[in-house]
Amino acid sequence: MQTLLLLLEREEAERDQALLRLQHAEDEARRAQSQAEMLLAYREEYRQRWSAHFARGGSMPVVQCYQGFMARLEQAIAQQQRQVDAAQQRAEQCRAALAAQQVRVASVRKLVERRQRDQQQRAARREQKTTDETAARAHRHGQALAATAVLPSGA
Hints:
Layout: H1 2-55, H2 60-150
Helix pairs in contact: 1-2
């Protein structure tokens, strides 16, 4: 039984570690998503600002500079989105690992409970057997006393 309790303790510790890994992965995914949203907002703000500027007219070098910057910004957004996807995938893997670990903990816990129940049943049977044997001895002893009391004293 002690081995099972140690196993349960180990499985619970591993489950707790899996939960921490999931929390870290979800935090990372949120940070990556937040950064992606900031880049998207910056791109929109930058477009609006330069659209107003270009409405008044702009030189070719300024337009080329704008287009070059926007191309780099789009690359940064695409790279950040890949990081978001990877972070979300890691979080999903951690979620699946946690679920599997929770199943293991539940299985070991059920096994421990079953073993405890079996031990309790065996103890109850031993106690009942002892009680039955004591009652049988008392009954035999009572019969023996009754038999000796019935015999005549001169016999």
